[in-house]
Structures are given as structure tokens and as C-alpha cells.
Amino acid sequence: MARDTLTGSRIRERRLFLDLRQAALARQVDISASYLNLIEHNRRRIGGKLLVDIAKALAVEPSMLTEGAEVALISALREAAADSGKPVAELDHADEFAGRFPGWAEVLAGEHRRVASLERTVQVLSDRLTHDPHLAASLHEVLSTAASIRSTASILAETGELEQEWRDRFHRNLNEDSRRLAESSKSLVSFLDQSNSGSVRRGVPQEEVEAFFTAHDYHFSSLEQGQASPEDLVAASAELQSDAARSTALSALKQYRADAEKMPLAAIALSLSRGFDPARLATEFHSDLPQVLRRLAALPEAVLGQPCGLVICDASGAVLLRKPIAGFSLPRFGAACPLWPLYAALARPLVPLRRQVIQHGRHAAGFDCLAIAWPQTPPDFDRDPVYRAVMLILPLAAVPVTPLAVGSNCRVCAGRDCVARREPSILDEEF
């Protein structure tokens, strides 16, 4: 039997594990015991609000009922095989391998995650050395101060007799410059080692915020249920090491709470059971489209019915928040591809855009991208508006016939003859 048809069996197994009678569970979710019996015997499909209610009553995530605990492991095995770059004849038997040798499957998936984490660390450190303005300024300060000390020391050592007044002045300069050098060096070392207390050295606030959201799978049930405040979540986080990261995460969580209060989980799950239509959701919940797109990206996959990605940027094009999705590469630093619908939306504020896209690469996949830009500040005759843009990324079942071809960013894009290219690619596929 197909995995996605075993939801009822998993509900029954979980109910029996909790020693909960069928009639009692039916009363909790406001359905009849006979209808629950049909569900548990896989004779009725289940989804939307009812699935969320049953999962809540059974104290599990909805995905555990719809997919089972082995799905994440099988997905990790398939990802490891795809990233190996070698043809794998037994890719269709990943579920059989995970079932027969779960221990070895866990080892393989864990090693793949470790390699991916190390690759991200190398990329972060490389980007920091190349692009980080704080690091460049600190190094410049250290080198300038060292040159000043060397010049003053040279004058004192190589010049003959100096008047007492000039000698005292050079000594004061040496003292002041050496103090500056000590402070600059201390600041630089502190910056490079700012996440030394954490288990992973991420280095920049955006990396810490992303790790924080990833640890919660971009969904904060305790915040939605009023059991915790944004301040509580930030204070309890092990991923947020720097003050800048905590401030950024706090701002994002406050926006998350406002979106959740406007569109509660149960209500939006019920609405989605009638079909996916962001414009209808905006009208139904008296919300604007940016708020709807942010809210959809924060929903559990079992409620939305599919995985999704999200990117939010400001008018400069800088990415403020990103939720990755498999197959659609999102750059961690620097500007992204200017052909993204996200940036086209900035040129047409408040006009929703929908584009079917593919990214250049060996494993091209189709995505449905919904984007819109909005003014973050209220209108004012004496002040220009500050715009932001948001893009929701949804996977397509098949590659579109006439898609918009985009990249990640120019340095790692294999696309040829691109009118938007800013710099040559470092990939051999192009040059």
C-alpha cells in the first residue's frame, strides 16, 4: 500500500499507544466514532483542519501521521544520492534500504548532513573574508596602526640626537598607536571568534537567524498558541549568539506573531482545504498579500499540502529572510539573480506577479513563484516610501513548457548569454 494512504493506520497505532478509546478520540475532534473507524481503516482520506485536530489530540505533528517517521530518512538518502554526482541505479530502492538497514541508512544520512554543514561553513568563511565590511575595516585599521608604529620607531632608532620635546612627542605617538593596535586586534579577534561558545561557528547574524528558524522548521507553535512570547523564544535559543542576530530574530518573530493572530492555524487550514488561492485568503482574512505569503510559508507542510520556500528583500535587493526549498538555490551573501520575480515586483509595487521558473543547473526543476512588493512605511508627502518584496516559492510537478530561466547569483550561474549577467561565472559549464 502506498505510504500516503496509510494515514489512518498511523492514527490507529498512535491512539492505541496512548491507550485512547476510539469514541474518546472522536469526541475530541468532533466527529462520529463510525467515521473515525473508516479513517483508521484507510477507507476515508483525511486532511486540512481534521488532520490538524487529530494530530493535536494525539500529541504528534501532522506530518508524522501523513508521512511516517521514515520519510525524512528516505528523503535524506535520495538527497545524498543526488548530490554525489554519480548515477545511482538503485535510487528507487531507497525506501527498501532504509527499511532493511535503518542503522546504516542513518549513518549515511548523518554523514551527508555533516559534509553539507562543513561545505556551508567553508562558504561562510570564504564569503566573510571576501565581502565582510567589518572584517575589511578592522584589518585596514590594524595594518595602518602597525605602519604608523613602524614609522615612528624608525625615526627614533635611525635619527641621531633629537630634542627632548620631539622625543617626548614620538614616545606619546608610540604609546597611543600601540594602544590603538591592541584595541583593534582585540576587536578583530573578538569578531572572528564571536560564536566560539556555540556548537557551530556561523560568523554572521543572518546565519544565526537562519539556523534558529531552521531548528524550528520555520513554525513556532508555542508562539501561535500564546504559550511563549518572541522575547522568550529568543532568550531560550542556542543558535542566536550575537546581539545583532537576537535583534533580527526578535523583529521577525513579532511579525510572525502578527501574521498568526490575523490568520490562525485552524482557520487557514480549513480555508486551504477548499483550494490554494492567496488572493481569496487575503479577502477572507482581511489581510494584504504580503502577509498571506509570509503566513503560508510559516505553515507546517502537512497543512499547506506541499513544501515551500520564501525570500524577503528590501529595496536594495539585500535578502532579509530566506526559507530554502530543495532545488531552488538561495545565495547566502551578495546579490541574487536579478531575473527573479522578487526583484521584478520591486519595479511594480503592490502589483502581484506570478511566474513559472527554472534555475540553471544539472537538476533543473520547475517552481511557481508568487511575488509582491509593498511600502513598509505609511505614505507621506515629504518622505519617499521604503519598499520590501516577498516571494513564495512552490514546487511544480513537472518542468513548465515555457519557463523563466533564472540563476542563483552570477558567480555560480551556468546560464549562457544572460542579459542580466554582472560578472563571469566561476563554473566550467559556462566558460
TrEMBL record:
MF (Gene Ontology): DNA binding; DNA-binding transcription factor activity
Keyword terms, alphabetized: DNA-binding, Transcription, Transcription regulation
Instruction: Say which species the protein is native to.
Output: Parasedimentitalea psychrophila
Question: What Pfam families has UniProt attached to this entry?
Answer: HTH_3 (PF01381), ScfRs (PF09856)
Q: Does the keyword Transcription apply?
A: yes
Q: Which SMART domains match?
A: HTH_XRE (SM00530)
Query: What is this protein's name?
Result: Short-chain fatty acyl-CoA regulator family protein
Q: Which residues are in the HTH cro/C1-type domain?
A: 11-65
Cited InterPro entries:
Cro/C1-type_HTH (IPR001387), Lambda_DNA-bd_dom_sf (IPR010982), ScfR_C (IPR018653), TransReg_Diox_bact_type (IPR050807)
Any one of the GO CC terms: cytosol
